[in-house]
Amino acid sequence: MLRTPATSLLRSSLARASSRSSSLTVCRAASTHAISKPTLANIEKRWEGMPLQEQADLWMSLRDRMKENWAELTLHEKRAAYWIAFGPHGPRALPPPGEGKKVALYTAVGVGVSLAFFVAIRMFAGPAPHTMTKEWQEASNEYLKSQKADPFTGVASEGYTGKGMVQSPPKSA
Questions:
Q1: Is the separation of the CB atoms in 133 and 171 below 8 Å?
Q2: DSSP 3-state assignment of 40?
Q3: For residue 127, what are the CA distances in angstroms to 130, 132, 133, 161?
Q4: I need a surface site. Which of 33, 85, 102, 159 has the fewest CB within 10 A?
């Protein structure tokens, strides 16, 4: 079994860490320069058509510039950073023209189809059950009184003046 001494592992990890920090320093120093005007010119119209990698690179360079003193930012950089962060693109994009009409139309169609189903079901439904007549419901009230159901506030209570179970019109002959 081959063993590597711990000191050599420590030395190699330190060497890698120092090389990373030096490369970060170089990138950091490169980001302190102003972004060129042609890169930021007309960004509002070009942003949606830019490749994602180019958008990300531009935003990262602007973000690095904003980490420094904002007084050193150019007017173009400030405008571009504001527009990229808060402009009407991505989730804040303006709705396409006619979207409200389309939503209203689809809603009306949905309500119309639902109404058609309701009417069709009501047309082909059987007659109302025999328990849905006024006579049956009055008999139910008498039965509840005889059973003393809900004696405090219901039909069986003293001085009750409500309709009780009655909710249907009388049976038509």
A1: yes
A2: helix
A3: 9, 10, 12, 31
A4: 159
